Amino acid sequence: DVKVTQSSRYLVKRTGEKVFLECVQDMDHENMFWYRQDPGLGLRLIYFSYDVKMKEKGDIPEGYSVSREKKERFSLILESASTNQTSMYLCASSSPSSRGQDYGYTFGSGTRLTVV
Amino acid sequence: GNSVTQMEGPVTLSEEAFLTINCTYTATGYPSLFWYVQYPGEGLQLLLKATKADDKGSNKGFEATYRKETTSFHLEKGSVQVSDSAVYFCALRPTGRRALTFGSGTRLQVQP
Q1: B89: nearest CA in chain A?
Q2: Going residue by residue through chain B (112 aa), what tens digit of pLDDT does each one get?
Q3: B32 vs A97: CB contact, 8 Å cut-off?
Q4: Least Cα separation, residue B41 to chain A (angstroms)
Q5: Nearest CA to CA, how far is A2 from chain B (Å)?
Q6: Does A90 contact B at CB distance below 8 Å?
Q7: Exposed (0-12), middle (13-18) or buried (19+): which is B59, by Cβ within 10 Å?
Q8: Which of A105, A109, A111 should one mutate to test binding to chain B, selecting the residue with the greatest count of B CBs within 10 A?
């Protein structure tokens, strides 16, 4: 069964800590994404990557960075965690779409991060 | 820009009732359209999709038709079950773009 695996379901970190969220996919997908999910706001794109070492900013990249050293792994980094980064973080992957062929994303189960 | 608008929730229905969750979108060109479902404590799962105008996506009794003329992709089910209780997200992928844009989600609660 194909999957996207996020390393932690729950994390509690202190303000100012550097936080790493890890995501691994086993589908050989080119594209990987990080979203955060907040009540009433839906999913907002933080960063995505379309190839090893390639990345693009999403809608809310401030306070975050990413790393993709291998095709299957995409890491989200909170450089200095703050309480407003308390959220559910969702990783997803996809293969490239083409006209008439679009399979959307496969999501991980999410990491609920609390910054205290 | 690209955006997705969903009806506000929660939607509360009795078992076997008819479900409609409205979704309209703004996008240039011919986006792909998706419905995702999120059960409590889980990530999102693809429920159904449509990649061109007039396509109907269907899965598990749910259906949605890609309506270009009204820029809509409403989700319907003829008879809901308690197990359908979840949050439903409408999403689009604009032509030539890698990332999906999501709506804010609609919580469905089905009572026995």
Answers
A1: A42
A2: 889 999 888 999 999 999 999 999 999 888 999 999 999 888 899 999 999 999 999 999 999 999 999 999 999 999 999 999 999 999 999 888 889 999 999 999 999 9
A3: yes
A4: 8
A5: 13
A6: yes
A7: middle
A8: A105
Residue among B43, B49, B105 whose CB faces A104 most closely: B49
pLDDT of residue A39: 87
Q: How confident is the model at residue A4 (pLDDT cuts 50, 70, 90)?
A: very high
Q: What percent of chain A has pLDDT over 70?
A: 95
What Cα–Cα distance (Å) separates residue B6 from each residue in A48, A85, A95, B37? 24, 25, 26, 14
Query: pLDDT tens digits, residue range B40-55?
Result: 888 899 999 999 999 9
Is pLDDT of A79 > 90? yes
User: To the nearest whole percent, how much of chain A has pLDDT over 90?
Assistant: 80
DSSP secondary structure letters along B87-108: EEEEEEE-TT-SS-EE---EEE
Give the span between the Cα atoms of A97 and B52, in whole angstroms.
Answer: 13
- Which positions in chain B touch A100 (Cβ < 8 Å)? 51-52
A108 CB near a chain B CB, below 8 Å? Answer: yes
Sign of the torsion formed by the C-alpha atoms of B88, B89, B90 and B95: negative
Q: In terms of C-beta density within 10 A (0-12 exposed, 13-18 middle, 19 or more buried), how is residue B1 classed?
A: exposed
Q: Among A42, A104, A105, whose Cβ lies nearest the Cβ of B104?
A: A42
